[in-house]
Amino acid sequence: MTTISMALQNFAGGWKEDNLYSVAYDRTTRMVTGLFGALVPFEDIEHSDTNLDTHYLGAISETLYNSIGESISNPVSLAFWNEDNTLKVRKILVDTGTGTYLDGKRESFVGLNNTVTLVPKCVDQHGNVWNDVTTIQIKNMGKLEVPMSINGQAASAYKGTVANGEPVSFELQQQGRATVRFKILVPELSTIWLSVYPELYAYTDEALTGLTAWAAAQTA
Amino acid sequence: MSTTHKFSIPYTHGMIDALENLDTTSISDVYFSDNKFGSARSIFNGKEMFDELYAVREKYGIKVHYLVNPSLYENEFYSKVPDLIDHVRDIKADMITLNNTYLLRANIINDFRVGNPDIELKNSVNNLVRTLKDFVFMHQVLHMTSIIVDRSLNRDIDTLTKMSDYAKQHDIKITMLVNEGCIVDCKWKQWDDVIISQIKFQDDRSVTDSVHNKLGCISYFNQNPAEWLKTAFTLPNDIGKFDRLVDTIKIAGRNFPIDQWHRVIDAYQKRSGNVRFGDLLSTTGDQKLSRILVNQISDLGFNELTKNCKTVCGIECDHCDKVYKQITRNFV
After folding, report:
1. Residue A4's closest chain B neighbor by CA?
2. A112-146 pLDDT, tens per residue?
3. B contact residues 212-241, partner A, Cβ 8 Å cutoff
4. CA–CA gap between residue A52 and residue A3 (Å, rounded)
5. ipTM for the complex?
6. pLDDT in tens, B320-329
7. Å from A72 to nearest chain B CA?
8. Three-state DSSP class for residue B66
9. Which one of A132, A158, A213, B146 is least enclosed by Cβ atoms within 10 Å?
10. What is the CATH number of the domain that holds B227?
11. Are the Cβ atoms of A199 and B272 closer than 8 angstroms?
């Protein structure tokens, strides 16, 4: 079997209990880039990319299958194959903090007084905070063109840091959409980083009044 | 000119339902072709397509825009021009894109207006309106007042600004195709256009498809992945550079599945970088690059580097190569 670069793989619903699986990983970065399953193990995989190698896993759980599949297809997650023949999965996620909500229509986070509080965290495949990472880097992608205060700093400071799993506030100073980046360096992989780019939205005064009333009604 | 753009979007089956989750007020038209005079003569788009197009127009006020892109069509094409005029009238098109410069010079718009007095006419991106001289020619000689500029202008704000200044003086509307992902001045494209203009619905394309796949841009991008970054496109989180310069953003993707179609239009409307590079472009390339988020690319300064680079790749500039190496080292 020869693997070649093809269209994006779709892993959703693809797990089969009887299948025996192998992962392909990059020899340099050690990141898993492929997941292959069949009823019989294949021993003759040749990759067109000569920097790829393969490791046979055998039967795997549906949870692990989905985790590896997500790491290949979703940039917020990664799986890597270690030299001690162990597999690790890491994800970067964002929870909402106090007074912060998801505007489903805009697919953006919004907040009371146009202050959005987010809780970025790096977790393993079980959703547990991964304590190897202590610092998460923050960046306002719009820099000075989309001013915001990060954790009370001046808007000119468009970068900052926050501890893994701790809240960070964004006081939006311009109506409209903004994008921020949370980024971690993966300690085991010196050149690899994971990032996620939540989008925030600052309402008009009128819309903000509506949000305030709606939020008050939720707690009444 | 407004600082917010209108969008010209491609027809895809099932779009009427998907439109419910998009900002339809900013969509000016939906463009399509058929297998009579259109540029998709290998695809049979019949009554079902027209029913959906008319329903979209009725529900959202989005104009129906017919593409007549082929350069050749057939040897005695000009004898078929009356049929073309009748067809445009019969399908009740509100807009038409035509790349035949002889017909443009003959003021065929007046013939179309007999059937629909309000019909709008655009040239094709394949007319390659790249310089200010080209732009003035389209206006003064070919009488165009709505001009699609060349794809290379995605990376040439200087020339686009000159065109925009002229356009404002002469009440001309400018359209920019932003996500085609074609090589600037592609050496294969003339052959693609010949095939597009000659292909019939029933043709066996296996040999041609094989040649194109093995020797065209698909294999070229796979063998030279960074070249895909050097094609003519503008990322969704960078279209603000066209504010006050461009009236309509044209989005490629007539062959996109409906989910991808929605993601791409939504990203451009929101100016969001949370869309994958491989989803965005209508060309295909390196799988590693396909998976990368637009935000991850722009995070490396890509938008600033390419805003006005004029595609001087190779000797004068290797920024895209550096971006590609940095992306693949960090994310793959």
Report:
1. B287
2. 999 999 999 999 878 888 888 899 999 999 998 89
3. 222, 237
4. 10
5. 0.84
6. 999 998 887 6
7. 8
8. strand
9. A213
10. 3.20.20
11. yes
